[in-house]
Amino acid sequence: MTTALVFPGQGAQEVGMGKDFHDAYAESRAVFEEADDALGFSLSGVIFNGPEDELVKTAVTQPAILTASVAVLRAFEKEYGKAIAPAFLAGHSLGEYTALVAADVLSLADAVKLVHKRGALMQEAVPHGMGAMSALLGLGIDDVRSLCEEASQGQVCSPANVNAPTQIVISGEAPAVERAGVLAKERGASKVIPLKVSAPFHCALMRPVADRLREEFAALAWRDPKVPVIANVDSSKPETVSQIQEAIYAQTYSPVMWADGALAMESEGVDLFMEFGPGNVLTGLIKRICKGKKTCATSKTSDIAKALAALGETEGGA
């Protein structure tokens, strides 16, 4: 049987995430300490104590979730007794960077510095209130692309996250996103949910962010992946540093094709999807996309026993 590890993106954050791992495992504690040292401020202090309005700032949220997710993974590996040997790694948006750490493409220190910069650039890219994102439920990608094109009227409006076949987030300039929401209701969307975000992610408005981000790549130490990482943009498996850099460059302003990535892993024989990090959003999505496949989410120390059992059952059936 075959296992994939997946890592959550922005939106999964909560004050206190990972604190139980920090307190219980020296391996997790070392992760938080390394992130603090790399950034030059107490990221762990914000993660554990808040205030929430500081944690939800994109420049803080992104390294915070990455750090907490790696801390959870390291604790699980300690209990498992060795490094997990998954067939694939994947993450949702920011989570793709966590997957790169798990694949040894980037060190934790370099990754937290990179996503801290990524978050700051995203936060600054579009003046507050000028951009928007909305989740559309009940429509497929072809319908969403069509209504975004109709709603754009010369402005930016496009799919940003294809989270499941009929759960799609759109992004762009606020008036166009609002028009798209009206059209979506007219065309049978079961729900249109405006999202509280600091910027319109994964659309053409983020192209300048991608260009600035690529300039940061040269200062970091990159390695080819030890385990294939599924790219958000096209579900490919980049094999070289240059291919990985192109994938995360494009990811900045392109839609996250999460449903396609999950199906790609399923088609390659993945039987168990293990989520590491705050929350269980990806586990819920994968249950809808890859029906009948095993899933488990580890976000608290109390989840470890179930995750160990799930991995043991998978290996036992191999």
Q: What would your notes on this structure say?
A:
Helix content is 50%, strand content 15%. By secondary structure, the chain is an alpha/beta fold. It folds into two domains: 2-125 and 205-316, Malonyl-Coenzyme A Acyl Carrier Protein, domain 2 (3-Layer(aba) Sandwich); 131-197, 2-Layer Sandwich (Alpha-Beta Plaits). The strands form two sheets. It has a four-stranded parallel β-sheet with strand order 2-1-7-8, with helices on both faces. A four-stranded antiparallel β-sheet has the order 4-5-3-6. Helix 2 packs across helix 7. The protein is globular and about 55 Å long. The model has no long low-confidence stretch (mean pLDDT 96).
Percent strand equals: 15-25%
The DSSP helix count reads 14
Q: What gap, in angstroms, lies between the N and C termini? A: 5 Å
The profile of the biggest β sheet is: 4 strands, parallel
Counting DSSP E segments of at least 2 residues, the number of strands comes to 8
CATH topology of the largest domain: Malonyl-Coenzyme A Acyl Carrier Protein, domain 2
Domain tally: 2
How are helices and strands ordered from N to C? EHHHHHEHHEHEEHEHHHEHEH
CATH superfamily of the largest domain: Malonyl-Coenzyme A Acyl Carrier Protein, domain 2
> For the largest beta sheet, what order do the strands appear in spatially?
2-1-7-8
Morphology call: globular
Low-confidence stretches: none
User: From the helix content, strand content and strand pairing, which structural class follows?
Assistant: alpha/beta
Radius of gyration based on Cα positions: 19 Å
Any idea of the CATH class of the largest domain?
Alpha Beta
Mean pLDDT: 96
Percent range of helical residues? 40-55%
Named CATH architecture of the largest domain = 3-Layer(aba) Sandwich
